[in-house]
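Homework-ish question, so no full write-ups if that breaks the rules, but can someone show me the predicted structure for this set?
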Amino acid sequence: MTGLLKGRDVRVKPMIEVRNLTKTYMTHERGHTLREVAKNLFHRPMKEVKAVHDLSFTVQQGEMLAFLGPNGAGKSTTLKMLTGVLHPTSGEVRALGLVPWKQRRQYVGRIGAVFGQKSQLLWDIPPADAFYMNKAIYGVGDREYKQTLDELVSLLEVGDVMRKPTRQLSLGERMKCEFIMAMLHRPELVFLDEPTIGLDMIAKENIRGFIRSMNSQGVTFILTTHDLDDVEMLAERVMVINHGAIVVDDSLSGLRGRLGEKKSVRLTTETAVTGEGLPGLSIVERIGPLEIAVEVDTALLPLKRFIREFNESYGIIDMSIEQLPIEAVMKELYTEGLSFVSSAREPEVIKR
Amino acid sequence: MRGIALCLAAVMRTKLAEQMAYRSHFALSVLLLVIGDLVVPFVTLLVYNAGASFPGWTLHEALLVQAVFTLAKGIAFPFFFGMVGTTLSQVREGTFDLLLLRPRPVMMMAILTGFDPDDFGRLISGSVLFGVALSGLSIPSGFAWLQFVLLFIASIAILCAVSLFLSGMLFRWVGSSRVFDIFDAVTRFGMYPGTIYSKSVQNLLTYVLPVGLIAFVPATALLGRSGWGTLWALLPAAGILLLGGLFWNRMLRGYTSAGG
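A: Not a homework solution, just the prediction itself:
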């Protein structure tokens, strides 16, 4: 398989530099009662919303960075400014040596974007027609187009699919074609906004495999998602955004480390577990009368002691020990971010 | 330049394929547009058959004004006016983002994505009407034809400018689907010979809302009723088109996308 970036300089160098990026916009609010709706026709109180506040970070070439955060955190707004779709209120961005919103045409010719909820395909005609249209829009030469298309089609296994009308394709097939649309002009930097939303496990795995393959060829990916499996399987670096500010910028293992040495333990016992009792132990869920899921902070309660004492008290029949799921880490970070920002107004930034 | 031409051809080809995916819809749309556009000329025919008339205008002369109006719409609607509808929906849904991600001028992409081959039906009805009107008139001179062609280009420029103004408004007044009604209400005056209105309305329709330039002025030129002086209309048409472009780009800066 020929690399998509074959012949290009793929040495590690800063690809994106963001400094003090801020975006505020005005919006109006109204209630839901008929009186409030009627009042709103004549008077519309405006409110300033700080969607993104003072973001600063850099992204290296070849990186795979995931933006995480609860709904309304500012992830998509950040992504839109990085793609040149939105102008920031203040701050600077240089990506691929260009200012995205000022040198838009030059810049977008070198980036790709896939939006899980905004299709670039044309509903009534086959994806092949839409690919051809993109070829002309991006000014891709005939030979380069054919070569890239062949590579992508074989990698994503959509040979038959791309000649059927888009409306007849499954969501997974459509998403594969969305990726082809975004990659036909061989972008160096690709933005993915919830690329696996709504897909089944097999389709997700295919898409993730494709992203990994492209990344190994030097393509830089910036991903926003709520699917933490995407993060675990793709991202080397995670940036948690909440209330428009960076709460954490760290590696995935670094993120896990933030919660200390905690383990997730699932147990089936001879007698029902009555209470927590031990320091460093918390009950997460009572699955059945004799089945329980607990969290063990091994810094306070070593596993050896936990197993011995639990066995003596309740009699262990079955047990599984796992790392704390990433969901637990994120839940803690989202909550922590919320309370932190509302109390201190300055987000904690953990530098890599 | 070659790249832009290839891009135009590819997008139009794709849009045509998209429209023709549903053949019955395409055929029905074209047919209904033809019928819809022939309603006013049919009423005009009934008026003249009943013995009434637009003062100073024969039936065929009046039909010529309506034919030029329909022809102008037959070119402007498929090529430019679709952008009003696509801007309306894309800005509201936030999918206008996708146009900003293309390495081409945004206005060009907005016009191209709005390309609507259904509206070529208007070109058919306009051509039929134009033929019927000319059949009852003496053959225009070469000079009249030259004047007509230039003024018809001005007419298209004005309609293009109107579509830019309406589309541009939609970046700020998101979801205002009534912009089409504004267009219909204002341009309806252009379907009749300008001289049937009072002098003040004529001035309004020529200098303020240049509706008269869409059909009345080019038709008058083809009828040989105006001299070279009429070509002054080319200047305001170019000016309005320029203003439309500036307005659209200015309004584009206010695009805020939709929530992610």
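Now go work out the reasoning yourself. Hint: Residues 1-11, 338-352 of chain A have pLDDT under 50 and may be disordered.
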